[in-house]
Specification:
By secondary structure, this protein is α/β, with parallel strands linked by helices. Helices cover 32% and strands 24% of the residues. The chain contains nine helices and 14 strands. The strands form five sheets. It has a six-stranded mixed β-sheet with strand order 8-7-6-9-10-13, sandwiched between helices. The protein has a two-stranded antiparallel sheet with strand order 1-14. A two-stranded antiparallel sheet has the order 2-5. It is elongated and about 80 Å long.
């Protein structure tokens, strides 16, 4: 599958009409489509900067170009960019369900593969931001920072985002806390951070609490997107089985009964409620998605209902 197919063209056209539902006013340095807490009223001119591919052509100053031969765009104090940071969990546990292939591509489904679905969600959110002239950075992690994409701007850079996400392979044990400890992993500017993961954390909600505190302290408006497979939400298992940890490659003998499955469902619900509570206490968002959803159900359903995107 090529990067061009990570998001179908008809889906991208629908995304172009959306904006991110950031709840705060941002103070950036470049022009975007959202109001800033900085100076100015209704398009107050601030400064010039060099034109870059993807910039809004309506801001291009033809007068300066005719005089100097150099391309510049106008900046305005009350329309500033949001800095969006996308974190995608590429650990081994995310590579579960379906396959990372073309399956379901034209219907908007990811073949139930958690990692492919997470990548397509991240690509969708990133594309919305790029079409709104926001700045977008992307990072993939397992127990370390696996890859980092430099900050992008403008719709024309969307294929770089798609290619980066597509090329990141799964593997390793997931630890966002360890990854964030590496140089350059934490967002440098205030903005919005979306994290796509199954959030199977060794220390559970306490680990997530520490992570969120660090990100909020760094001026981030955080959105946690938990991606689980249908098998994880409603497992259909029975009998004597040996369950293998996909990240540690360790196994455990388990006798699966209806009672065990019921207890599992209770524990999963309790864990999700604790994650939701931990996020809420720090003023952040938490949503759960099943990897058998379509992108439309996720974006126009779950994300829109949570106020995370605006039509």
């Amino acid at each position: 599958m090529t990067s061009a197919h990570l998001l179908p063209s008809d889906w991208m056209m629908r995304l172009e009409r959306l904006t991110l539902g950031s709840g705060r006013r941002v103070a950036g340095t470049l022009q975007g489509k959202r109001r800033s807490s900085r100076l100015g009223s209704s398009l107050e001119f601030a400064d010039y900067r060099s034109y870059a591919p993807g910039d809004d052509i309506r801001r291009f100053d033809w007068g300066v170009y005719s005089r100097t031969g150099k391309p510049f765009v106008r900046q305005f104090m009350d329309e500033q960019e949001l800095m969006l940071s996308l974190y995608v969990d590429c650990s081994a546990s995310m590579d579960f369900g379906g396959s990372q292939a073309m399956k379901g591509m034209m219907t908007g489904k990811a073949g139930d593969n958690k990692l492919l679905f997470a990548k397509r969600l991240a690509a969708s959110i990133g594309y919305i931001a790029l079409c709104s002239y926001e700045r977008v950075g992307a990072l993939c992690y397992s127990n370390r920072l696996n890859g980092r994409l430099p900050v992008l701007r403008g719709r024309g850079s969307a294929n770089r985002l798609f290619q980066f996400l597509q090329d990141m392979p799964p593997g390793g044990e997931g630890s966002l806390a360890s990854a964030l400890g590496e140089p350059g992993a934490m967002p440098r500017l205030s903005g919005m951070t979306w994290i796509f993961s199954d959030f199977w954390l060794r220390e559970g909600e306490s680990e997530m609490g520490n992570i969120l505190s660090r990100l909020v302290g760094a001026g981030q408006e955080v959105v946690l997107v938990q991606v689980l497979s249908p098998e994880e939400i409603h497992p259909e298992l029975s009998g004597d089985l040996r369950l293998i940890d996909s990240e540690l490659n360790t196994g455990k003998e388990v006798a699966i009964t209806g009672r065990v499955l019921h207890r599992y469902t209770e524990e999963l619900e309790h864990y999700q409620n604790e994650l939701r509570k931990t996020a809420s206490e720090r003023g952040t968002s938490f949503v759960t998605l099943s990897s058998d959803m379509t992108l439309q159900e996720a974006v126009f359903g779950v994300f829109a209902n949570a106020g995370l995107i605006r039509v």
